[in-house]
């Protein structure tokens, strides 16, 4: 959409009420010594589009590696799962990877996609229901906070699906707590299918988060665009630049927005000061080994049933069983 068309649309649209939770989160993050913005706020409509573009980049090997792994192993995964299971997906987006599983899974009882973005969710759910003649109950929720499953979902033979290495966005302690919560949500004898990116050459990792075309930079900076639009911020996009680095001590890729100058801006009636070179930490992507991921799963109450990696050892996919 062009800038002009956007202006016209904005003029016609009623101003939306401010998302108070978003504002509170941003204000609290920007008042810390190391400023932060929660990475879950990347995914407005534009951010989701940019993320989709990231998954097509040469440098971003994760999606290709996981998709190939899923295709390769879907028959074996289907054998583990058996028939009559209910698939619960955390952060289903457009359910692209799910379709690979659904192609292989025999006689699934139900699919429950969970996503924070309601519009996309309902459309994707309808499409999956039609294409696979499968009962689908979409759940519009933020899976990082507490929620319950719809009452129609019997807690029998539940299989969680959490692809994409999205688990890498959590601090390890949070990831263990999340896994523990998922286990109680899914009930006894549950399974969890989860993708986790692997440790590798830091140069390869940094390239995946700082691509030559600048798509990841646009994705990161879009946070500021979103804050300007939705929270009435006055960030200047020219005054910040994207930075990605591998933090070897923590075993994670970090994304930051670097302030290019001393500057002050206002948000929600508060003044926020930046010194030149100061950063806003916008994302962690933790990278695991097969072993360190199994240990993490163990902390969350899950035992490893099987794990697969691609021939290059780029990415891992785990089948876990609730203990
Ligand atoms: C969707 C969280 C898995 O961490 O690799 C992509 C998001 N950030 N490029 C990731 C992301 C920058 C992505 N996850």
From TrEMBL:
Alphabetical keyword list: Methyltransferase, Transferase
> Could you say which EC number(s) this protein's record lists?
2.1.1.44
Q: Offer an example of a GO molecular function term for this protein.
A: L-histidine N(alpha)-methyltransferase activity
What residue stretches are annotated with the Histidine-specific methyltransferase SAM-dependent domain? Answer: 24-320
Task: Tell me which Gene Ontology terms the entry assigns under biological process.
Answer: methylation
Where in this chain does the entry annotate a coiled-coil region? none
This one is known as L-histidine N(Alpha)-methyltransferase
Native organism? Pelagibius litoralis
Lineage, please?
Bacteria, Pseudomonadati, Pseudomonadota, Alphaproteobacteria, Rhodospirillales
The gene behind this protein is egtD
């Amino acid at each position: 959409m062009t800038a002009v068309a956007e202006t016209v649309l904005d003029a016609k649209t009623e101003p939306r009420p401010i998302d108070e939770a978003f504002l509170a989160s941003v204000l609290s993050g920007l008042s810390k010594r190391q400023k932060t913005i929660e990475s879950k706020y990347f995914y407005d409509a534009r951010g989701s589009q940019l993320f989709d573009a990231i998954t097509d980049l040469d440098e971003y090997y994760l999606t290709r590696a996981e998709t190939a792994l899923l295709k390769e192993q879907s028959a074996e995964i289907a054998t583990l799962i058996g028939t009559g299971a209910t698939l619960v997906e955390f952060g289903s987006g457009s359910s692209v990877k799910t379709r690979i599983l659904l192609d292989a899974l025999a006689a699934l009882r139900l699919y429950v996609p969970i996503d924070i973005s309601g519009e996309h969710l309902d459309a994707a759910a309808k499409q999956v229901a039609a294409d696979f003649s499968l009962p689908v109950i979409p759940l519009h929720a933020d899976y990082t906070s507490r929620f319950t499953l719809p009452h129609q979902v019997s807690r029998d033979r539940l299989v969680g699906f959490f692809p994409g290495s999205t688990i890498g966005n959590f601090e390890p302690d949070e990831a263990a707590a999340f896994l523990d919560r998922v286990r109680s949500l899914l009930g006894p004898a549950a399974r969890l299918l989860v993708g986790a990116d692997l440790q590798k050459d830091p140069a390869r990792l940094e390239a995946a988060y700082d691509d030559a075309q600048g798509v990841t930079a646009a994705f990161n900076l879009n946070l500021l665009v979103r804050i300007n639009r939705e929270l009435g911020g006055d960030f200047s996009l020219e005054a910040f630049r994207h930075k990605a680095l591998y933090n070897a001590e923590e075993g994670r890729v970090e994304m930051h927005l670097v302030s290019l100058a001393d500057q002050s801006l206002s948000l929600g009636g508060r003044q926020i000061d930046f010194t030149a070179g100061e950063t806003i930490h916008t994302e962690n992507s933790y990278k695991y080994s097969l072993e360190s991921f199994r240990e993490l799963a163990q902390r969350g109450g899950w035992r490893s049933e099987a794990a697969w990696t691609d021939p290059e050892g780029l990415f891992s996919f785990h089948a876990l069983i609730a203990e």
